[in-house]
Amino acid sequence: MALLSKGRRRPGGASDNTWPGFVDALSTLLLVIIFLLSIFALAQFFLGQALSGRDEALERLQTQVLELSDLLNLQRQANDDLRANVSQLSASLQIADSSREEMQRRILELEADIAEAEGISGRVSRSNNEQQSTISDLQGRYNVAMENLAEERELSKRAQDQVELLNSQLASLRQQLAALNEALEASEAKDKEQQAVITNLSSRLNTALASKVSELNQFRSEFFGRLRQALGDRQDIRIQGDRFIFQSEVLFGSGSATLGAGGQEEMAKLAETLSAIMSTIPDDVDWILRVDGHTDVLPIRTAQFPSNWDLSTARALSVVKYLISQGIPAERLAATGFGQFHPLDPADTQAAYQRNRRIEMRLDQK
Fold first, then answer.
1. Same domain? 199 vs 61
2. At what angle do helices 308-325 and 261-278 cross, to 10 degrees?
3. Is 325 among the domain residues?
4. Which of 150, 205, 209, 349 has its CA 20 to 30 A from that of 29?
5. Average pLDDT over every residue of 282-290
6. Taking a C-beta distance cutoff of 8 angstroms, is the pair 344, 239 a contact?
7. Looking at residues 318-341, what average pLDDT do you find?
8. What domain range includes position 314?
9. More confident of the two residues 150 and 130
């Protein structure tokens, strides 16, 4: 009876827990692979955006490089997790191999029990039905054990296939990580090169602007100096800063925007001086003579000039039109009316009013 009890024992519970463990491992591995593929697709998307927009503003390029660096760190972390999962799967395979060896050992024990039972059947007095039942039971257990062994072998083969696939994917991921590193290094190098070019261009632009301003200041000084000689040393025509100022009474009658004879004479001198200087100004100096009209604060309300603004603008236009008639190119002239809003002297006196009624001329860049 002890022998029969030993023959009826089922194999240890290790084989019963192996299959669920493999299912969990494979499910986890599949989720990790899907997560890695998603991260990789996202990394490729951001990398494509970064590479396609490499000629855009530097600030955007630097932001994309930082984002790619973060994604690369995530990819490396996921790669480390994948290696850990592969190690766990290898350990599970070793446990499966151990379980398979244990199963084979139990099969040998069952076969020994069968042989022993068949030997004892000739010596022990029992019914033929009991012997057949015992033999059938042992045979059934043997068949179950063989089926379990076949399943273990199939699972082992699948696990090995999964390990080979994971190794192949790891190699591919390493290649892609290397490509990402090369792309990031190239992007950083291009960023430094573009920064150097921008710095150089900015320096050259500032130098060119300073040169043009200096050149224009030179011609402005020459223009004002020669204009002072042409007009003489008069109190009602003076230079103040970078402006040449004519009192309105010199050019116009009271409340009028028509140049008088004296005004035309002064503007003719101005046009002659400006024409002489124009021939010496290089073509690449984009200059303009701005004519600004100003009035005092005393309001004017006539049908022709409803406001001081209209009067100041009309006077500036009269000067510009006369200069054009004297051969000054229209594209080099500009007329502006400021009304009473930019006085030279804010005092409420007749002298202040007279100073504020004026035509200002300024040689400037466009």
1. yes
2. 60
3. yes
4. 150
5. 80
6. no
7. 95
8. 232-365
9. 150
254: domain CATH number? Answer: 3.30.1330.60
Tokens at residue 19, please?
Answer: 């299959």
What confidence score (pLDDT) does residue 120 get? 67
In a domain, 218, yes or no: no
C-beta pairs of 4-11 under 8 Å, 24+ apart in sequence:
4/117, 4/134, 6/113, 7/110, 7/113, 7/117, 7/134, 7/137, 7/138, 8/137, 10/141, 11/102, 11/103, 11/106, 11/145, 11/148
Which tops the pLDDT comparison, 237 or 38? 38
**Number of structural domains found in the chain:** 2
Together in a domain, 151 and 256: no
With vertex at residue 310, the alpha carbon angle to CA 307 and CA 315, rounded to the nearest 5 degrees, is 130
Mean pLDDT of the region 103-109: 82
- Are 53 and 189 in contact by the 8 Å Cβ rule? The answer is no
| Residue 213 falls inside a structural domain | no
pLDDT, residue 313, reads: 96
Q: Are 26 and 139 in the same domain?
A: yes
DSSP H or E segment with residue 348: none
Based on the fold, state whether residues 40 and 94 are members of the same structural domain: yes
259 falls within a domain: yes
Give the chain's length. 366
Do both 295 and 169 map to the same domain? Answer: no
Q: What percent of the chain has pLDDT over 70?
A: 78
Whole-number Å distance between alpha carbons of 291 and 320: 7
Sheet holding 243-247, edge to edge: 237-240, 243-247, 358-365, 287-294, 333-337
Residue with tokens 């090169």: 193
Helix or strand (DSSP H, E) at 57? none
Q: Does residue 200 share a domain with residue 237?
A: no
Three-state DSSP state, 280: coil
